[in-house]
Amino acid sequence: MRSLPARAGGPCTHLRTTANVRGAGAGGSGHARAARVGHNGSMTVPGLAPRGGLGGIVAVWVSAAVIAIAIGVIAPPDWRAAWMPVDLAFCVVLAFIIQLVYGHAEGFIRRVAASVLGALVVMGLIGLGLGLASLFSA
Q: Which of 13, 86, 98, 137 is most buried, taking the most CB atoms under 10 A from its CB?
């Protein structure tokens, strides 16, 4: 009889088969038959799919837009440019807080960077609009 060896270090135990040698056994049938099926070990359950981080990123963008519009409405035209970096600093802190509360380490830097970069773009577009509005209103 011949047995196929199990693969060493593999993730599972392979099915071992034995073949009857011609002329051996009852009638020398020559058919292969399964000797036994090995146990693969415990089945692991994958972790729950992480929540999408897009909500936290968009929340920072929205807060940047709301604060930039508030700066444009409340602050005098000479002080608008001075208050925009304060808004960006608030958005950086807010992005860190939201992503830390999110509690998922994988992709943390990417989500914070996307939050802050998006806030910078949103604030830049609103600042451009405020600058053009003040230019044409004078």
A: 98
Question: How far is the CA of 135 from the CAs of 78, 120, 138, in angstroms?
Answer: 12, 22, 6
- Find the farthest-apart pair of alpha carbons in the chain and give their distance in angstroms, rounded: 108
Instruction: Work out the angle at residue 87's Cα, subtended by the Cα atoms of residues 82 and 91, and round it to the nearest 5 degrees.
Output: 155
Q: What is the DSSP annotation of 13-56?
A: PPPEEEEPPTTSSSS----EEEEE-----PPPPPPPPPPPSHHH
Using the structure block, give the residue that is written with the tokens 């004078």: 138
| H or E stretch covering 84 | helix 80-102
pLDDT tens per residue across span 37-81 = 666 667 666 666 666 778 999 999 999 999 999 999 999 988 999
Is the pTM here over 0.70, yes or no? no
Domain ranges across the chain: 7-40, 54-137
